[in-house]
C-alpha cells in the first residue's frame, strides 16, 4: 500500500517510510492512497476474535506486506501484554443502551498506550542499528508518558518531549520529570500546548540533524490513527456483531480518535453517529457546529488533556471531505497558518454533519455528570469521560442504537477531584515536587529547539 501527502506534492511513500517519519516533505500528513473495505459479512465473522487477532485483521491491509503476517501477529499480541484487563478494552454499561469503552488499562493508564506500544514495535522492526532516531512530540502529560514508557528499552531511539509550562497536571509532570535521563529529554515551553505543537511541526519541516531520523510520537504519524481504528471495530462487534449500527461519543483530546472513527465507517463498519465533545476550549465544537475553526486562547479546565485548540488530524479529515484533493488542502492549510482561521465549503461541511454532532461542556456540567454516573450507575469516571458521556446522552440521534463513550483516562488519574466529590475511597497521592535539569524555551523559539536537537 502506498501513502500520499494530504498536500499533494510529496512523493508516495511505503509503510516503512511513513512509520519512520514525522510529516511529509511538503508539510502535509501521510494518508493511505486507498482504504481497505470490508463487507458486513466479513466484519461479522470477526465477532469471536480476541483483541490482538481483531487488530491484525484491521491493521494488516495498511502494512502492505512489508511485515510478514506471522511477525505482525506476534507484534500485535506483544503490544497488549502489558494491559491489565483480559479484554484489553472492556465495555461497561452506564445506562439504557449507553456504554463506556475503557481504553485506560495500558501501562500508563491512558488510551495513548495503544498507539505508543504499537509504534515502538514498528520502529524497532524497521529501524535496525546503527541507524538512530529521535522520537519527538508535544505533550500535556499522557502522550509523552506513553511514548517514554513504550520506547524505554529501544536503545537506538531517544525521546524528546515538549510540554507547556502551565497546564500539565501535577502527577503527569512528576512522571515526566521522573523519566528524564540520557534516553529521554524534556523541554519546557513558556506557552500553551498549541505552542509546543507549533514548535514540533516547524522543526520536523526543517530537521537539523541529517543522520538521525525524526519520528513524531504525536498522531501526525499515521500509527497514531491506525492503532485506534481497532477501537471502533471492537466496540461494534461486542454490541451488535458488527452489523447493528453503533454511535460513538469521543472527547476531543485529539482529532486522531475522531478521524479513526470516520475511517472505520469508510472501511465498512456500521457507524451511524459520531459526537465530538469538548470542554470550554471549543474550537472543534465550533468547527462542527458552525463551520468556523480557529486558534484561540486556551483556558484551564477540569480536563487538562483537552485544553488546546490545534488539531493536526483535522487536515486528514478535510482531505477526505474534499475527495482527496491535495492542492485544495494545501491552499486551505496555508491560509489557516497565516490567519489562524479556517472554514470549509458548505458542501463539505454538510457532508460532515451527516455523521457528526458536537457539544461543549462546562466544568460545572462535568462535575454534575460525574456525580450522576456515580449515583445512578455506580461508576467513577474522570472529567474527560464525563464530558463525552453527557454529550452522548444529550445529543444521541437514536435510542435504539448503542452509544459508546470513549474513556481515554483511568479514573485514578483524577483521584483528587473524585475524592473532593466523595467518589473516591483509595489513596490520593500528591505529586512529588522534583527539580530536574531541562531546557526551557520561549514559544516560537525554533532556533533554540534546533540547536538543542543538534546537541543530543
Automatic annotation (TrEMBL):
Signal peptide: none annotated. Keywords: Pyridoxal phosphate. Its cofactor is pyridoxal 5'-phosphate. Coiled coil: none annotated. Residues 92-328 form the Tryptophan synthase beta chain-like PALP domain. It holds the Pfam family Thr_synth_N. The keyword Transferase does not apply. The keyword Membrane does not apply. Residues 3-80 form the Threonine synthase N-terminal domain. This is Pyridoxal-phosphate dependent enzyme. It comes from Pseudomonas capeferrum.
Amino acid at each position: 500500500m502506498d501513502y500520499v501527502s494530504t498536500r499533494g506534492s510529496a512523493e508516495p511513500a511505503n509503510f516503512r517510510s511513513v512509520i519512520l517519519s514525522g510529516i511529509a516533505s511538503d508539510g502535509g500528513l501521510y494518508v493511505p492512497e486507498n482504504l481497505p473495505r470490508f463487507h458486513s459479512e466479513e466484519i461479522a465473522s470477526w465477532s469471536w476474535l480476541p483483541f490482538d487477532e481483531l487488530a491484525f485483521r484491521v491493521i494488516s491491509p495498511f502494512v502492505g506486506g512489508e511485515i510478514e503476517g506471522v511477525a505482525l501477529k506476534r507484534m500485535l499480541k506483544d503490544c497488549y501484554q502489558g494491559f491489565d484487563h483480559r479484554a484489553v478494552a472492556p465495555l461497561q454499561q452506564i445506562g439504557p443502551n449507553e456504554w463506556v469503552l475503557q481504553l485506560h488499562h495500558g501501562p500508563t493508564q491512558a488510551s495513548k498506550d495503544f498507539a505508543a506500544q504499537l509504534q515502538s514495535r514498528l520502529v524497532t522492526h524497521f529501524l535496525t542499528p546503527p541507524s538512530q532516531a529521535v522520537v519527538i512530540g508535544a505533550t500535556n502529560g499522557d502522550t509523552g508518558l506513553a511514548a517514554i514508557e513504550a520506547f524505554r528499552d529501544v536503545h537506538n531511539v531517544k525521546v524528546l518531549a515538549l510540554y507547556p509550562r502551565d497546564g500539565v497536571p501535577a502527577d503527569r509532570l512528576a512522571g515526566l520529570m521522573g523519566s528524564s535521563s540520557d534516553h529521554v529529554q524534556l523541554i519546557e515551553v513558556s506557552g500553551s500546548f498549541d505552542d509546543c505543537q507549533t514548535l514540533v511541526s516547524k522543526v520536523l519541516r526543517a530537521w537539523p540533524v541529517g543522520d538521525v531520523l525524526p519520528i513524531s510520537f504525536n498522531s501526525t504519524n499515521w500509527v497514531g490513527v491506525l492503532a485506534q481504528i481497532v477501537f471502533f471495530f471492537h466496540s461494534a462487534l461486542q454490541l451488535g456483531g458488527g452489523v447493528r449500527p453503533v454511535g460513538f461519543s469521543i472527547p476531543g483530546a485529539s482529532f486522531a480518535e475522531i478521524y479513526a472513527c470516520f475511517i472505520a465507517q469508510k472501511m465498512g463498519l456500521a457507524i451511524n453517529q459520531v459526537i465530538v465533545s469538548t470542554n470550554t476550549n471549543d474550537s472543534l465544537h465550533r468547527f462542527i457546529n458552525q463551520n468556523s475553526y480557529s486558534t484561540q486562547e486556551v483556558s484551564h479546565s477540569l480536563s487538562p488533556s483537552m485544553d488546546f485548540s490545534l488539531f493536526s488530524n483535522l487536515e486528514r479529515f478535510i482531505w477526505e471531505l474534499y475527495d482527496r484533493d491535495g492542492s485544495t488542502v494545501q491552499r486551505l492549510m496555508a491560509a489557516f497558518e497565516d490567519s489562524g482561521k479556517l472554514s470549509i465549503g458548505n458542501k463539505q461541511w454538510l457532508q460532515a454533519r451527516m455523521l457528526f454532532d458536537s457539544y461543549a461542556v462546562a466544568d460545572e456540567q462535568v462535575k454534575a455528570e460525574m456525580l450522576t454516573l456515580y449515583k445512578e450507575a455506580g461508576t467513577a469516571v474522570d472529567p474527560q469521560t464525563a464530558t463525552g458521556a453527557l454529550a452522548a446522552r444529550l445529543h444521541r440521534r437514536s435510542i435504539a442504537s448503542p452509544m459508546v463513550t470513549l474513556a481515554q483516562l483511568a479514573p485514578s488519574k483524577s483521584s483528587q477531584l473524585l475524592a473532593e466529590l466523595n467518589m473516591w475511597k483509595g489513596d490520593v497521592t500528591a505529586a512529588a515536587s522534583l527539580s530536574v535539569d531541562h531546557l526551557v524555551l520561549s514559544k516560537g523559539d525554533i532556533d533554540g529547539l534546533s540547536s538543542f536537537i543538534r546537541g543530543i
